[in-house]
Amino acid sequence: MALRRTKIVATLGPAVDDKAVLNDLLRAGVDCVRLNMSHGSSDAQAKRIAQLRSCALALKKEIGIIIDLQGPKIRIKKFKSGFALLKIGQSFTLDPQYPETDGDEHIVGVGYPPLAQDVTVGDTLLLDDGLFVLEVEKIEGTRVICVVKLGGKLTDHKGLNRLGGGLTAETLTEKDKTDIQFAAKNQADYIALSFVRSAEDVMEAKTLFQDAGGTGGVIAKIERAEAISHLDAIIKASNAVMVARGDLGVELGFAELPSVQKQIIARSRALDRAVITATQMMESMKSQPIPTRAEVSDVANAVLDGTDAVMLSVETANGQYPVQAVSAMADACLAAEKQRITRVSQHRLECHFTQVDEAIAMAVMYMANHMDTKAIVALTESGSTPLWMSRIRSGIPIYALCRHATVRRRMMLYRGVYPIAFDVMNYSLQDVDQFAVKTLLEHGIVIAGDKIIISHGDKLGSSGKANTLKVLTI
Which residues, 6 or more positions from 11, have their beta carbon under 8 angstroms from its beta carbon? Predict the structure, then answer.
């Protein structure tokens, strides 16, 4: 069977807490897992991490772990009866100073004190991911008085957005800071930072993670409209990016989202960062055993655009068919990867390189794409060389031989990269190629007569020193 180059991220939750189901999920093709800190206690998430690592070890699989921070989602407070029926044309008021549990069909509290300062008359406010639409009619003190444009049964604690963005609570909450400590303690491979506004938000999260002892990377979730204005700076500050289409689609408007998604993927690849496409990719499989045709097309288009990974959320966390959702997503990725566009690259043909190791990575990919090559092999310490290689569209697998388990797990997010445990410090420079080939043979990756391209540095075990490229025949 063909190797799938696009990686799959699955969210853990009650639907896969049974060990047998989790094993089936991993066998179905999961490369990384996400733990959503918006739901469940830290103790419950720690148990999931421990069980995941036990299953991955038994299956001899490298699985990356992403801790997704809740972030400062702006929400309404509670209603006396647990809900309010909003009718089109009626008046409905949002007031940060209104009592926590006293909401009714006329008014409700909001957990965002500066609301009245951040909106103006005529603004469109969206509740519950856009299912409820309000237009601001007037502002009186802390009260924002609206007319209902799209109503229904509104329940407690639903999210609030402004069309076009502009409601900008601090990115890192106190809960997030506690959860960063949890991520470091549990050796997470990435933390995903919600509602990023700027590169400074990312750098703050990185510092907190590192100070807590974390060795993983930071994923910037692009879900605020204002983040698009600072996109390149945010991408450069991050280790990876997530196209978080829920809130982003609400703030931009659903019609604008597809083109912005393509822009985020393209800029992430151009700036040498991994990118995840997320939210509602196989949403119908919460309750159906097969995806809709539109969902399959959605996954395929993300693959064709060059996303590193596609993500499942509620489908695997709480859905009725978690294993089938992973299998369906894997099939959709493989089918899309048959298209020539996924293997032909114009990336960086005109660039001037200042780093030798980056130039080596680009040279390897150019050669591999223009000759009969079975595999690309990168001996790596930090994972940088395989990351650079994976930015080039190619149908040739990149095997990243690495002695560090933490780096191998991080590389599980990179498109077309397959990490393998290999300790270069056990070999001399003269015989390391021979033992690298032996490792490939032991894994059944190559056979006699196959041609491979291998890269490493003259100083084994040193990061950023790749300066050697060889073409070998097995």
Answer: 33, 34, 35, 36, 311, 312, 313, 314, 315, 316, 317
